[in-house]
Structures are given as structure tokens and as C-alpha cells.
Amino acid sequence: MGTVAAYIDGFNLYYGMKSKYERKYLWLDLIKLVRHLRPEDDVVRVRYFTTIVRGEPAASANQINYVDALRAYSGDLLDVQIGWFKKRTLSPCKLCGAHWHCTCPRRPRTFEEKETDVALAVAMVEDAAAGLADLTLLISADSDFAPAVAAIKRIRPEHPVILAMPSGSLQPHKRFSDVGFFSINETALRQSQLPERIYDPLNSKVRERPDKWR
Predict the structure, then answer these.
(1) Domain count, the chain
(2) In this predicted model, what pLDDT tens digit does every residue of 181-199 receive, in sequence order?
């Protein structure tokens, strides 16, 4: 048995699950998931990086509810880091030419995520350099993390890095080298759900799984 520190790219995990299973498994216990993925190892830290969506009040409320439930249920083992969105100038929709509102299936995005990827990469490299755990588990299929993985390998060549790729990703991008990898299957997601109701002592509220997340 060794120790593992996990780093979770919240949006990559979200879109991976949603693309294959809709919202069925979004009420996810991240610590339980990591323990399911690495049953032989002792989990010493789980770092979750995400950004609260903007422009969609219901989705934002569900996400905040989930983050608060995670914090209330997981204790100090889970570190949640929230990034931010930067408003950007829209290019016209490629289908209809509209610059703002359109009814096309793929509408233009109005915001782009900032800081979360950089924060994850920095934390992952710093923790590996400090010897926080024997193994680094990265839950993401985003090739933007390849330089951070390469930095870990330069600092500690013997330190194993494993990619746990969200549903739908079968192979890591070619930019990754010297890493182990596997795909997160439906069983792992199904068996790693939070309780339906969680008491949040910080806000004196009961956090419940949203109806749309069933």
C-alpha cells in the first residue's frame, strides 16, 4: 500500500460524465471515487478545481449546492478551489451569423474559464516536489496538463503519474508521456455517489441532490 494525491479537473470530469450519462452521476462523492479507483492506496489529499457557471442561474445554484455538500461531507481531506470566468468578445455563430442570441444547437459561448487549469497544474507539481504522496492521480483528459506532468517527471523521475480519464476518453493525448492511464467506468461513478441529503453545518442547511441530477 502506498499513498495517493488526486487532482480533479471539475469541468473535464463534468462534461465527460454528462456526454455519456447525462446528469445521472453528477452528485459525485469525489473522495469515494478516488478510493474506488485506487483501493490499494491511502488517499492523503483530493484537490478539486472548478468554476461556477455564469449566465445560467439554475445551473449555478445546483453547482454551488453541490460544492457546499462536498465540503460539508468530505472534511479536511478535500480541498476545493474555485476559479472564475472572464467575459470575452463573441465571434458570430458559424451557423446563422448572429453575434449574441441565436437558436442554433451550438450557441456561441460568452465566457471562458480562467485560473483553474493553472491552479491545478501548480498544485500538482508543488505537491509532487514536496513528496506529499507516493503517486499522483490526475482525473482529466485535458492535454493542457501534459507540461505539468513532464515537470513532475523532471523533478522526480521515479514518481508515478496516472491519468484517470472521464467517461468517453479511451487513450491519453500523445502529448502525455511516461504515464499510466485508464478510463473511469460507470460502475465507479454509480458506486461513488453522495448521500441524497447532507447537512451543511456551516450554513445550517440540508443539501439535497437536485431533481435534474437523477
Answers:
(1) 1
(2) 999 999 999 999 999 999 9
